[in-house]
Amino acid sequence: MGTFIQLLIDGLSTGSIYAALALAIVLVHQATGMVNFAQGAMAVLSGYIAFTFLGFGVPLILAILITVVISFFVGAIVERVLIRKFEQGNPDTAVVVTIGLLTLITGICAWLWSYNNQLFPSLFPNQTIALLGASVSVRSLGTIIVILAIMGLLQLMFVGTKLGLALRAVSINQQSAAFAGMPVGRLLMVGWGLAAALGAVAGVLVAPQLTLTPGMMDTALVYALAAVILGGLTSPVGVVVAAALIGVLENLAAVYVPFIGHDLKVAVPFILIFVVLVVRPQGLFGRKTVVRV
């Protein structure tokens, strides 16, 4: 039983890393209708910005807050200068642009800070507590709690605020939103800015666990996209649940399913994606799109 609890908690901790990035992807999609493949690289850039402030002796909390604000403006500028030129065009072109942006940001991070692993301090103490026979990291618990709080705030914003409703309206139909008097351009910038700020939070939460490198988020991005597909692009709650499910099932399968083991556990999320897409193409919590013809 202790082993099972340990695997469960470790899976939730790993899933929280995927969830942090998946929430930022959902936020961009809810605001613009796009899937941002550069979200992981933007989170890494934010991590390096915070790391630079720490090098100047800025306290950790203050460095993170400053980084979140800077990341908001970086995301807004990226949308205004680069992404806006492709938002009304072919969706495939926009996807390629975000992949190119991922490569560019990763290269910039490597150029400025090198590929060496950098130790990043954690917001939470590096201690463990005993829980039902398992050893639980305080840092992991803190990360899970922060992600759940962000999920709740995002869900509240999209459902219960004028900003959230406006962002959803713009993502569904920009022309109709413009005719209704909404400032579409500013809303798109705000959407990307908020996603970049959320990515900054993800970056500073993940960096202490993975160590800070330009490619820190590459693997996490794959799992985050899997969580987005499983949970649904329209549901912050859904992607967090899906990310937790991926983390837990991956751990359990590696130990309790002999033919999978640790070598093939990476296949678990893709098997889940296949099953979900066959049964429920919009994702576990996503809304089915109805098109009038």
TrEMBL record:
One of its GO terms (molecular function) is transmembrane transporter activity. It is found in: Cell membrane. It comes from the Bacteria. The keyword Cell membrane applies. It is a multi-pass membrane protein. GO terms for biological process: amino acid transport. It holds the Pfam family BPD_transp_2. InterPro entries: ABC_transp_permease, BCAA_transport_permease. GO terms for cellular component: plasma membrane. Keywords: Amino-acid transport, Cell membrane, Membrane, Transmembrane, Transmembrane helix, Transport. CDD domains: TM_PBP1_LivH_like. The chain crosses the membrane at residues 7-28, 48-74, 94-113, 145-167, 187-208, 220-249, 255-279. Belongs to the binding-protein-dependent transport system permease family. LivHM subfamily. This is Branched-chain amino acid ABC transporter permease. It comes from Leucobacter tardus. The lineage of its organism: Bacteria, Bacillati, Actinomycetota, Actinomycetes, Micrococcales.
